[in-house]
């Protein structure tokens, strides 16, 4: 399976930075999943979202955030999150 670069940051720490197979989020419009080579996309994440990540070794991780922004472009996904 192909991978993409996933970076999840807050104002003070990096929560994840590396290759990923899959990431799902909840946007204001509903649930979205991202895999390698997804079309360019920009969205606001729903308050209280749970990010679900499958990393390069197929390990699954969940990260709960208060809110955030997601950008996917050039096989790279960046999530800027707020956690209180």
Write structural notes for this entry.
With 84 residues, the chain is mostly beta strands. The chain has a single domain (4-82), classed as ATP Synthase, domain 1 (Sandwich), CATH 2.60.15. The protein contains no helices and 8 strands. The protein has strands at residues 4-9, 14-27, 30-34, 41-45, 50-55, 60-64, 67-73, 76-82. Strands 1, 2, 3, 4, 5, 6, 7 and 8 form an 8-stranded mixed sheet that branches. The protein is globular and about 35 Å long. The N and C termini lie far apart (35 Å). The model has no long low-confidence stretch (mean pLDDT 95).
Summary keywords:
single chain, 84 residues, mainly beta, ATP Synthase, domain 1, eight-stranded mixed beta sheet, 8 strands, globular
Short characterization:
The chain is an all-beta fold and 84 residues long.
CATH architecture: Sandwich
Number of helices: 0
CATH topology: ATP Synthase, domain 1
Helices and strands, in order, run as: EEEEEEEE
Radius of gyration: 11 Å
Distance between the termini: 35 Å
Uncertain parts: none
User: What is the name of the CATH superfamily?
Assistant: F0F1 ATP synthase delta/epsilon subunit, N-terminal
Q: Name the average pLDDT.
A: 95
> What is the highest CATH level, the class?
Mainly Beta
Question: What are the SSEs and their pairings?
Answer:
Blueprint: E1 4-9, E2 14-27, E3 30-34, E4 41-45, E5 50-55, E6 60-64, E7 67-73, E8 76-82
Parallel strand pairs: 1-8
Antiparallel strand pairs: 1-2, 2-3, 2-5, 4-7, 5-6, 7-8
């Amino acid at each position: 399976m192909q991978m993409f670069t996933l970076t999840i940051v807050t104002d003070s720490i990096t929560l994840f930075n590396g290759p990923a197979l899959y990431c799902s989020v909840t946007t204001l419009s509903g649930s979205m999943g991202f895999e390698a080579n997804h079309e360019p996309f920009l969205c606001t994440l729903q308050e209280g979202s749970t990010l679900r990540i499958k990393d390069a070794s197929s390990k699954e991780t969940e990260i709960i955030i208060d809110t955030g922004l997601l950008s996917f472009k050039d096989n790279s996904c960046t999530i800027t999150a707020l956690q209180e």
